[in-house]
Amino acid sequence: MTFVQKYLSWAAGALALLIALVFALPGGKVRGFDVAGFGNIPILEGGRVKPLDSVARNSLLVIHSRQGFRYDGRTIGPDEWILDVMFRPQVADQQPIFVIDDPDVIGLIGAKQTKNRNYFSFVDLSSHLEEIQKQAQTAQPIAPQKRTRFQSAIVNLFDRVYLYYKLRNTLQLAGSPGLGWELQSISDAEASARHQDLMQLSQFRILPPLPGGSPDAWKNVGEGLRAMAAGQGVHPALVPLARLNAAYVANDPASFNQALADMNGVVSTLKPGALSHASNEVVFNRAQPFFVGLSIYFVAFIVLCISWIWKPELLRPTAYSLLFAGAIVHTLGLAARIILQGRPPVTNLYSSAIFVGWGAVILGLIVERMYRKGFGTAVAAVAGFASLIVAQNLGTEGDTMEMMRAVLDSNFWLATHVVTITIGYSGTFLAGAIAIAYAIRKHIVSKVDVETDKALVDMAYGIICFALFFSFVGTVLGGIWADQSWGRFWGWDPKENGALLIVLWNAIILHARWAGYVRERGTMVMAIFGNIITACSWFGVNMLGVGLHSYGFMDQAFYALMGFGLSQLVFMAICYAPPRFWEQKPHHKA
Amino acid sequence: MIKTLASRIWKFFKSFQLTIVLLACLMALVVLCTLAQVEMGTQGAVNAYMRSFFVKRQVSFLPFPLPVFPGGGLVGLLLTLNLIAKTLDIQRSWTKAGMWLVHAGLVILFAGEFVAGMMQVDTNMSIEVGQTVNYVQSYKNMELAVIDTTDPAWDEVYSVPDTLLAKGGSIAIPDTPLTLNVKRYYPNSELSNLPPGAPPSLATAGIGPGISVVERPTVTNDNELNTGSVFVEPVAGGRSYGVWLASMALGAPQSFTHEGHTYLLTMRLRRQYLPYAFTLKQFRHDVYPGTEIPKNFSSLVQVVNPSQKESREVLIYMNQPLRYEGKTFYQASFGKNDTLSVLSVVENPGWLLPYVSCVLVSLGLLVHFAIVLRRSLKRRQDKKEG
């Protein structure tokens, strides 16, 4: 590798990091309004203080499956969208953001499915709200596993419409003249009923706790108005909030930005620290480190693939440096989540996917340093990419930093048991990925290269040992946690069984190898099967819907899991097939 | 001849084939047990697949269930023997010290699961705020309690477990002149008011004559409870006090008086009285602000143990149970608008074994990896020098 090549390859990594940095920068003002500043306002939702930006992004993800959309020829971001929903519902109601894929549901609302038309606006749906609600209410008592496709889809649509409806009525009642009017007519005849509605429909609490009260006593607008009507004085945040509302409706950016500054002033006196915590989270939201990370992994993998046919001495180190850059972004994202949440890295299924990917990438980087054959880079990039894709799909159900239920509220056990067992998953997946690489290589590469084959088998073997250690220790630690909290070490709960299966399978691989029953190829076939077992124990047990660990049922994921299992069986067959079995036999020379 | 047989058996038990076959069987059992939980409930599936020596299937043309697959007990036993044989077979040299520790730890882990399967007793204790409770009660088993309430200072409790009621016949209550004649016992039943014109009830005293009892199949599911009922005739001093109906479905106990002693009759979940008592001073159920997500459950109890002259406060909360006199008390559930706390109580003499095992195995793996690392470093060094 020449001097220039070395620097070129590292420059690629640096460029990737620079692009990642650009994502974290704030966007400009929209029509003069400081929309980003509005997204920075801290609120309380789901038991934790977070910026409005997080509410906007998560709600838009739930409703629209994306964090932004195009309308009227320009891109509307989450902060602008939530401003419109809350202050100018007549505008937001026109935007087609509800995605409906189920043809029966589309039929129910009297529309026809066409190629571009499965996006609907609130106005489109508004004349069918009663029917949607009626259908959803009949389906809701049925257990999620037992619902038909239509029932799942209608419940899902109802939940999204209801979320939208709540957002519309959180800061002002949609259709009313606004919060300023509400403050003036505090004692009119219907005021009390309106306050009641605002309290019931409120999606989050925006009024910070007042001095002297409990530090967690955030209030929603309805509660603030009710306290005011009861003669307890005006909450200091209500006034700038009303001005924000009025200025946005009147299309007056200067007053809006001034009111925003006043609002921030109120928040920072009432709840010091909340503003800076919120703005840290906004930076994290904007940077989207896991999306950026998976893109970099993808590029790294493509570059590596090209390196096998063109300029390997330049492109292989480039791929490695890109993988390294991706790992940095991934690590920063993980660290940011840990700091923001104040929790160890794995707290739910979403974060487990991120952590499994991270573990696989770090292991892959180490393997690549040891063997320098490009395989470590390849499998690490694929594993990181795949697990972040899985995470992106798991993250569309709302806040991924939700609060931990009482029994899980133990940083010690989350940090020990959950992290070790997840590293065990990473290891098993990485060993499987290496085995797949081995299988494909066996059939593609024309010349027999014993040394590379041996290196791959060594890598897989070492990683299986590593995975056995972590999954065993993690499983036993889990047993000890269970003994501490439920009174039994081992209860044959599905999740425990899943972890046990991984341990048993890795133990079988190692014993079969030590006893000489399997050699290179056999070990690799078994390592691929490890992928199926790990995927089943990671996701499959949640689909059974039994046991103490079943935290969330996923119906669509079932087919994805089946597909994954089948693909692994195919890889096992490919691995087991003799090399180049489809190639034509050389013609006999006459 | 004997020697060859012994050496064959030895060879069989220390073989790698056996290890792999058994591990594979265990994997199959774990998968089957997990899938079966959807239909049978966790406890049912565990009993059928794990805590049995054979997995049995009922075949139509046979009067008894046919063993179709080795159960968890058998596989575990063989695996333990295999492990012991293997452990003894590992070279007794320092280079194998790690492997020795690992396998010894695994033997202890299996032993722990056996002890738990055989000897673990699960009960619970429900206390309301301010109440003092000195017993734990079973989740499923029942008893017929005969309580002498004559002395206002304390009750004398005699109880007949459901297993004894099921045998029927007459049961003499020790230390009292009473004998109970069990007329009929229903392990599970449904009670209703006796419709007019129906055949008369077996009962002749108490509220029994007005009630009809229908037998029901027993339930085993985790969250269902059998309603046990029994018709008994207390006899004392040659005199019958009539036939009484006692049932889990009847709330208030019924009483009769013999020679100045008043006896209550009641069917209830089987109790085990403790030489100490718990008083619930406070129960907390905290949620995250603005949500219903539980953040914490905790019970502040006063433990009073006269035999140890002990009286102290203990806070039992999530992940922080109280271990006391061989029993462990966990915060399990709550009710009655957060004024009732339910503690689950576990008595498992082998609870320490998994902890010991965990330490041994982790230590063993670390030692083994250290030895392997040293060896490979040495090899690398040799290569460089050579």
Shape of chain B: globular
Written as H for each helix and E for each strand, in order along the chain, the element string of chain B is: HHEEHHEEEHEEEEEEEEEEEEEEH
The SSE order of chain A reads HHEEHEEHHEHEHHHHHHHHHHHHHHHHHH
Distance between the termini of chain B: 52 Å
Query: What coarse outline of chain A follows from CA principal-axis ratios?
Result: elongated
Q: What is the C-alpha radius of gyration of chain A, as a whole number of Å?
A: 28 Å
Helix content of chain B: 25-40%
Strand coverage percent of chain A: under 5%
Say what oligomer this is: heterodimer
Reported for the largest beta sheet of chain A, the result is: 2 strands, antiparallel
- Distinct helical segment count of chain B: 6
Query: What structural category arises from helix and sheet content of chain A?
Result: mainly alpha
**Average of pLDDT of chain A:** 86
- The total count of strands of chain A amounts to 6
Helical run tally of chain A: 24
Spatial arrangement of strands, main beta sheet of chain A: 1-2
Q: Indicate the percent of residues in helices of chain A.
A: 55-70%
Main pleated-sheet profile of chain B: 10 strands, antiparallel
Q: How many beta-strand elements of chain B?
A: 19
Characterize the structure shown.
The complex is a heterodimer of chains A (590) and B (386). Chain A is mainly alpha-helical. Chain A folds into three domains: 33-95 and 169-279, no CATH class; 288-400; 413-582. Helix content of chain A is 67%, strand content 3%. Chain A has 24 helices and six strands. Chain A has a two-stranded antiparallel sheet with strand order 1-2. Chain A has a two-stranded antiparallel sheet with strand order 3-4. A two-stranded antiparallel ribbon of chain A has the order 5-6. Chain A is elongated, with a radius of gyration of 28 Å. Chain B has 386 residues and is of the alpha+beta class. Among the domains of chain B are: 2-89, no CATH class; 137-272, no CATH class. Chain B contains six helices and 19 strands. In chain B, the strands form four sheets. In chain B, strands 3, 4, 5, 13, 14, 15, 16, 17, 18 and 19 form a ten-stranded antiparallel sheet that branches. In chain B, strands 6, 7, 10, 11 and 12 form a five-stranded antiparallel sheet that branches. The model of chain B has no long low-confidence stretch (mean pLDDT 86). Classes of the chains: A mainly alpha (590), B alpha+beta (386). Chains A and B meet through helix 21 and helix 22 of A and helix 2, helix 4, strand 15, strand 19 and helix 6 of B.
